[in-house]
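Quick one, probably user error.
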């Protein structure tokens, strides 16, 4: 069994996978709301999910939706989140 299969077979892995998918979708939702001047998702929420293991979803969401790409601290926090993701993966 490879690392990815092991990750998806663990409860923590499923939570991390869900956080990444959710964060990707939230970036798309926030971008949509910014276009129509609607209620927005707070930056604290986006950064918190990115920090707590959702870095992949955050980076992919930023690039796919071209959202928050000019804010350097979003990249920094999401890359730290990727580091946390790998740290958790290696310590399961």
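Nope, works fine. Designed sequence:
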């Amino acid at each position: 069994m490879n690392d990815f299969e092991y990750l998806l077979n663990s409860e923590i892995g499923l939570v991390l996978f869900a956080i990444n998918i959710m964060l990707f979708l939230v970036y798309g939702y926030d971008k949509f709301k910014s276009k129509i001047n609607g209620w927005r998702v707070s930056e604290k929420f986006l950064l918190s999910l990115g920090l707590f293991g959702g870095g992949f979803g955050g980076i992919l969401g930023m690039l796919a939706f071209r959202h928050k790409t000019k804010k350097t601290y979003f990249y920094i926090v999401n890359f730290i989140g990727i580091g946390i993701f790998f740290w958790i993966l290696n310590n399961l």
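The mean pLDDT is 90.
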